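Design a sequence for this backbone.
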């Protein structure tokens, strides 16, 4: 195992934000995911569940690879890298896609679709807008991060285009319950690990600082409780803006279609 992961540790010049690699992958990736979302927009509910299950399992395989890569390459096969524990906001779709793949209740799934659209879609967009966190000195890690976050954008576009997400103004409010559960789980993990290796799921740990811009100062000056409250509120605000902007676009588009049909 160690030989395999060290063999796949192919070094690369770490991509620069808005450099050739970043811009090429971003624009080509966006073109591909938008085209795929358009082509798959009319899948049946069964086909949709199969698609989401495949995406979830693919993300799971990639995550297992990443965890073992860090263990063998960075940890020398002795120390586990706890700070990359897979329960950040952008990790959640891995679990939700697998769950939705098996869950036949569209009423339950629709809440999860709205969550992934509101929070994970914008997370993918923001990551490519400020990509320093996904640029690595190894090809496999860099491709892992780029493909992962591009898949988040695909999920958002696909769920919106297929009318499985962002179809009701109440959808976002329901999705907040999923965010609340995720925040609770993240904090349980944080308390259990007590800041090992700087572990901070959802960047709200009582034991490890939030190193994100702006919030690092909040954590340092006002403590973890204020950081947690403001960070969660920032997520709620960002998700709401994303959701309701697209919901407004959907309403205006539907009205325009109705006018054309009646004229």
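Sequence:
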């Amino acid at each position: 195992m160690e030989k395999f992961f060290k063999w796949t540790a192919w070094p690369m010049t770490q991509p620069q934000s808005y450099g050739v690699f970043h811009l090429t992958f971003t624009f080509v990736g966006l073109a591909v995911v938008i085209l795929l979302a358009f082509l798959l927009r009319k899948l049946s509910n069964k086909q949709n569940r199969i698609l989401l299950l495949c995406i979830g399992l693919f993300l799971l395989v990639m995550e297992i690879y990443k965890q073992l890569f860090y263990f063998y390459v960075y940890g020398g096969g002795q120390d586990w890298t706890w700070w990359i524990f897979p329960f950040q906001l952008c990790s959640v779709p891995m679990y939700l896609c697998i769950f939705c793949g098996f869950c036949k209740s569209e009423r339950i799934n629709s809440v999860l679709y709205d969550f992934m659209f509101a929070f994970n879609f914008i997370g993918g967009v923001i990551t490519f807008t400020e990509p320093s966190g996904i640029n690595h000195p190894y090809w496999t890690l860099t491709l892992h991060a780029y493909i992962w976050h591009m898949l988040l954008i695909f999920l958002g576009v696909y769920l919106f285009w297929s009318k499985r997400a962002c179809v009701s103004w109440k959808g976002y409010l329901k999705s907040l319950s999923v965010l609340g559960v995720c925040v609770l789980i993240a904090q349980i993990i944080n308390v259990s690990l007590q800041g090992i290796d700087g572990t901070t799921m959802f960047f709200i740990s009582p034991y490890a600082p939030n190193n994100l811009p702006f919030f690092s100062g909040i954590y340092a000056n006002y403590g973890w409780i204020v950081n947690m409250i403001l960070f969660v509120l920032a997520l709620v605000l960002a998700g709401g803006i994303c959701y309701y902007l697209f919901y407004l676009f959907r309403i205006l588009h539907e009205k325009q279609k109705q006018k054309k049909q009646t004229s």
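Residues 2-262 form one domain.
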